[in-house]
């Protein structure tokens, strides 16, 4: 039995759209920060049982096509026919709204390959995790991570920009809504690719954002990182509003918080917002400003749940 842990990540330059759905190749490169507060632990054991088995939070679940894909890849690499028993557990601080497939598939890649006796490099693990979920390719690493879009299966992998982050960047995850997202990220990005006339502009600007964001990280410039992340996120969300039919991941509270974030900036605090395929914003700021920012938000919108995150580590084997 092999047990692995992987942390979730927040994209500062988003992955949004697959050029090749079967191969899980993205249109644009993306850049993320691995977070320290939410992780998935997954154990895998290959046995002579008749079928693959997936137990999530102690409950047997159907084996999804994505899960099967990763297990089949591992079997192929190991030359094995054995079926897997996969047990997975999410560690989320009081409903942080941070659940993601990124930590799940990164932990699965590490645990399953080890359980099958493979010794894969981190690049190979990143590719394997990508076959389950694109954003999972980045959760193999800690800190700031770049996923190269690549041109084929072997050239589309993530690598760390800086696994050790020595400056005080903070991400405040705000929970406005715990409901299951209505349009899953995979379907949402596909709708944008096929029906938004702005999609090509998204790809072009996202690629340009990668070099600007890399420079801001090298400069340890938290305000610039936040500014670029907010602009990039809103451009991604513009492809949903411009899709046919149009849709949005914003909830009323999301817009309310965005407005407050802009007000917070007028008070001289650096605070920027990003959000993924769901209504819960993540605020990017300096550690020293966290309590002031939360105080302002609380005064305007009481009863929100906040989770303060800092840069987190890469995926690792626990056994
Ligand atoms: C908006 O990685 O969940 O969070 O590859 O279809 O599993 P699949 O999609 P997923 O998409 C993540 C989209 C995003 C942006 C990002 O994390 O880069």
Automatic annotation (TrEMBL):
Q: Which GO terms describe its molecular function?
A: ATP binding; diphosphomevalonate decarboxylase activity
Q: Which InterPro entries match?
A: GHMP_kinase_C_sf (IPR036554), Mev_decarb (IPR005935), Mev_diP_decarb (IPR029765), MVD-like_N (IPR053859), Mvd1_C (IPR041431), Ribosomal_Su5_D2-typ_SF (IPR020568), Ribsml_uS5_D2-typ_fold_subgr (IPR014721)
Which positions fall inside the Mvd1 C-terminal domain?
172-303
**Diphosphomevalonate decarboxylase-like N-terminal domain ranges (all copies):** 6-158
Superkingdom to which the source organism belongs:
Bacteria
Which family does the record claim for this protein? Belongs to the diphosphomevalonate decarboxylase family.
Please state what the protein is called: diphosphomevalonate decarboxylase
Q: Which organism is it from?
A: Lapidilactobacillus dextrinicus DSM 20335
């Amino acid at each position: 039995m092999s047990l692995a842990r992987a942390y979730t990540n927040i994209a500062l330059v988003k992955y949004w759209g697959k050029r090749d759905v079967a191969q899980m190749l993205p249109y644009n490169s993306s850049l993320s920060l691995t977070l320290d507060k939410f992780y998935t632990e997954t154990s895998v054991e290959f046995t002579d049982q008749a079928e693959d088995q997936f137990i999530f939070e102690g409950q047997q679940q159907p084996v999804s096509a994505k899960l099967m894909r990763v297990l089949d890849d591992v079997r192929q690499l190991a030359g094995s026919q054995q079926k897997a028993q996969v047990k997975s557990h999410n560690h989320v601080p009081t409903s942080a709204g941070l659940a993601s497939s990124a930590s799940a598939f990164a932990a699965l890649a590490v645990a399953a390959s080890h359980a099958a006796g493979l010794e894969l490099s981190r690049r190979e693990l990143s590719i394997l995790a990508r076959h389950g979920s694109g954003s999972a390719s980045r959760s193999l690493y800690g800190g700031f991570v770049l996923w190269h879009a690549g041109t084929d299966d072997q050239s589309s992998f993530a690598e760390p920009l800086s696994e050790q982050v020595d400056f005080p960047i903070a991400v405040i995850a705000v929970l406005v809504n715990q409901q299951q997202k209505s349009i899953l990220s995979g379907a949402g990005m596909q709708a944008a690719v096929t029906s938004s006339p702005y999609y090509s502009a998204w790809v072009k600007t996202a690629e340009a954002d990668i070099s600007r964001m890399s420079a801001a990280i090298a400069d340890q410039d938290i305000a610039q990182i936040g500014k670029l992340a907010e602009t990039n996120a809103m451009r991604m969300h513009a492809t949903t509003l411009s899709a046919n039919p149009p849709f949005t991941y914003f909830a009323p509270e999301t817009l309310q918080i965005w407005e407050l974030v802009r007000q917070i900036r007028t008070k001289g605090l650096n605070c920027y917002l990003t959000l993924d395929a769901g209504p819960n914003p993540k605020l990017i700021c300096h550690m020293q400003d966290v309590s002031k920012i939360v105080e302002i938000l609380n005064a305007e919108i009481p009863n929100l749940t906040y989770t303060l995150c800092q840069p987190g580590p890469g995926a690792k084997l626990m056994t």
